[in-house]
């Protein structure tokens, strides 16, 4: 048995200590962000416990309703949404919330209002719940300091304006990955302490990877550049080894693997769904923010994903994100197609 200090992680850098350290670098800060984050962390712990108990506590299956996007809501979707809304409102630091599960933005009542806008996907990868595969929560945070009466229009901001983004993956362990705009750090929940401990400091995505991740079942509807890229992954023209295919179908899990091992995650637009599937505000932007902060790239097929300005709350966009060099390749294919037209 390993009794070294490292094995016991005696440094015990909890996520709270970590964010307090960051806060101390900004003497003008009043700790609002730290408080907001502690409420998000609480929400993640709560959902993690619910996910772990899902089969036992009859939390799997459908809740009997469909959300605004016509998708059947799972019981855990509904529960997670309630948990995060309560956690965020009770922090007293939010003014407006956008959830995948709610058609309209939630405007926080004035007495509980703060300056942050939080956009979130309370439970990502819901189709994987019933078979116990990794799922997660995704969130992004904007500051709306000068907005007195927030409206939906105030949230339609490009991803590059986010001040923080992250996700929590409910997998074989519970891992929270966070960026406040100064790199990316990962924290693992120690269930015996009930604390997220820094286990993945300063994550940097490999410059090039050996894995591509896409739902190939949609291939018959792909456009030229996506089809050409995936063909190159399988049959490289330069004699290098083909890439491996990994696809879980939970964005959080597929992006987490991409961040740690390198490679590319694609959810392209296609003939059936020209804007793809993934939602700009609470899926595409937070993951793109993290990718860029880790040294990777994120591209919509037309532009840098974080430059996109959404025109509605639940807008979708094609997305290609991951290792810098891999995304560079797909950007070149789309640029070449643009010149041909
Ligand atoms: O089943 P598909 O079409 O490959 O889509 C998978 C994608 O859909 C999602 O499950 C959508 O997220 P939700 O479960 O939050 O709706 C992503 O997590 C994942 O990347
Ligand atoms: Mg999702
Ligand atoms: Mg979801």
Report on the architecture of this protein.
With 341 residues, the protein is an alpha+beta fold. The protein folds into 2 domains: 7-200, Fructose-1,6-Bisphosphatase, Chain A, domain 1 (2-Layer Sandwich), CATH 3.30.540.10; 211-340, 3-Layer(aba) Sandwich (D-Maltodextrin-Binding Protein, domain 2). It is built from 8 helices and 15 strands. It has helices at 5-8, 15-24, 32-53, 75-90, 224-234, 251-261, 280-293, 324-340; strands at 62-66, 72-74, 94-99, 106-107, 113-124, 135-143, 164-170, 174-179, 185-190, 195-200, 211-213, 244-245, 264-267, 297-299, 319-322. The strands form 3 sheets. It has an 8-stranded mixed sheet with strand order 4-3-5-6-7-8-9-10, sandwiched between helices. A 5-stranded mixed sheet has the order 12-11-13-15-14, with helices on both faces. Strands 1-2 form a two-stranded antiparallel sheet. A hairpin with a 6-residue loop joins strand 3 and strand 4 (106-107). The radius of gyration is 20 Å and the shape is globular. The model has no long low-confidence stretch (mean pLDDT 92). It binds 1,6-di-O-phosphono-beta-D-fructofuranose and magnesium ion (2 copies). Pfam families: FBPase, FBPase_C.
């Amino acid at each position: 048995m390993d009794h070294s200090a490292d094995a016991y992680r005696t440094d015990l850098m909890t996520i709270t200590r970590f964010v307090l350290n960051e806060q101390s670098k900004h003497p003008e800060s009043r700790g609002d962000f730290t408080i907001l984050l502690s409420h998000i962390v609480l929400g993640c712990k709560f959902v993690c416990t619910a996910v772990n108990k899902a089969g036992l506590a009859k939390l799997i299956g459908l809740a009997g309703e469909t959300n605004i996007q016509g998708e059947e809501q799972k019981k855990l979707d509904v529960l997670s949404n309630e948990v995060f809304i309560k956690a965020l409102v009770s922090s007293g630091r939010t003014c407006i919330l956008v959830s995948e599960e709610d058609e309209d933005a939630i405007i926080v009542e004035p007495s509980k209002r703060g300056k942050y806008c939080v956009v979130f996907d309370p439970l990502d990868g819901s189709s994987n719940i019933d078979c116990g595969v990794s799922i997660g929560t995704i969130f992004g945070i904007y500051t709306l300091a000068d907005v007195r009466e927030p409206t939906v229009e105030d949230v339609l901001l490009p991803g590059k304006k986010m001040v923080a983004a992250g996700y929590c993956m409910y997998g074989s362990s519970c891992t929270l990955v966070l960026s406040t705009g100064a790199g990316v750090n990962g924290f693992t929940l120690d269930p015996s302490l009930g604390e997220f401990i820094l286990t993945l400091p300063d994550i940097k995505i490999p410059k090039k990877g050996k894995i591509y991740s896409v739902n190939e079942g949609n291939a018959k509807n792909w456009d030229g550049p996506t089809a050409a890229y995936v063909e190159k992954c399988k049959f490289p023209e330069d004699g290098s080894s083909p890439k491996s295919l990994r696809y879980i179908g939970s964005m959080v899990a597929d992006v987490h693997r991409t961040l740690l091992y390198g490679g590319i995650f694609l959810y392209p637009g296609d003939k059936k769904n020209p804007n793809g599937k993934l939602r700009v505000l609470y899926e595409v932007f937070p993951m793109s923010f993290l990718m860029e902060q880790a040294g990777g790239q994120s591209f919509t097929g037309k532009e840098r994903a974080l430059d996109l300005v959404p025109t509605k709350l639940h807008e979708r966009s094609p997305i290609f994100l991951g290792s810098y060099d891999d995304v560079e390749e797909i950007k070149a294919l789309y640029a070449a197609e643009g010149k041909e037209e």
